[in-house]
Amino acid sequence: MSARLTLNLTRAGGGMAAVCLILFATAAPARAQALVADLSRHFVAITTGFTGAEVLLFGAVEGEGDVVVVVRGPDHRVVVHRKARILGVWVNAAQMTFEHVPSFYAVAASGPLAEIASETVRARHELGVEYLRLRLPPAKASPNVALEWRKGLVRNYQRLGLYPREPGTVTFLGNRLFRTRITLPANVPTGVYQVQTYLLRHGRIVSAQTTPLSVSKIGTEAVISDFARRQAPLYGLIAITVALVAGWIAHLAFRKA
Question: Which end of the chain is less crowded, N or C, counting CB atoms within 10 A of the terminal residue's CB?
């Protein structure tokens, strides 16, 4: 009997970026902060035909150091199913529930994380997908079994493009200015995201800043989504009716042909 895990789930302009970086270069010394960062936009609108988006994060640092950026979507509850092949048919053989799972997670750094941040710092601040605290109740899974379920959860999120497999790159322009692009896929969940920027020296965090990023549906997408959430039974009935009518029309068209 073989098994596999499946998951149940209930661009900024270059000219503007240059201007923003110049402003940071002149403003940061006046404020005497070790780290200053901001986003090219704080709101991403999901409309009909949305194919993803890019948001520019830019900033400046005082003195030497490395920069790590972590983008984390709203936490939610996720049920992971283990499917087993029994008598030639794949069926749900077991399931496990995770609480407080980031709906999106991405990290970017100015160098290899293992070199610029100590093991303790990476674990404490969840710098890297392997350090995400995706815990299960001890009574439900032993450490070895919990690790297997956790790997299945991460693997499915990576397959969906919500947990990029490789870290992004933070680029320094000179000694002080830096930038990186946050890429959001077409299936990005809605909600308020936390964009955390860290300045590290000698493997330790010396300054940090958190910037919110809102992702929301607007227009027709928002109306349909809100209706589906508030009137789930009626929405399901309408969807089934539309599917039946579409199938009937297609049947008539093919029969006449």
Answer: C
pTM of the model as a whole: 0.73
Token pair of 24 as six digits: 């940071």
Cα diameter, the chain: 77
Residues 6+ apart with CB under 8 A from 215: 43, 44, 46, 73, 184, 188, 189, 190, 191, 192, 193
User: 88 and 190 in contact (C-beta within 8 Å)?
Assistant: no
What would the two tokens of residue 101 be?
């799972």
Please write the tens of the pLDDT for every residue from 178-233: 999 999 999 999 999 999 999 999 999 999 999 999 999 875 554 455 445 555 66
How do strand 89-102 and strand 75-86 relate by DSSP bridges?
antiparallel
Q: Are 170 and 67 in contact (CB under 8 A)?
A: yes
CATH architecture of the domain covering 3-218 = Sandwich (2.60)
Which tokens in the block code for residue 48?
A: 């009909």
CB 167 within 8 A of CB 27: no
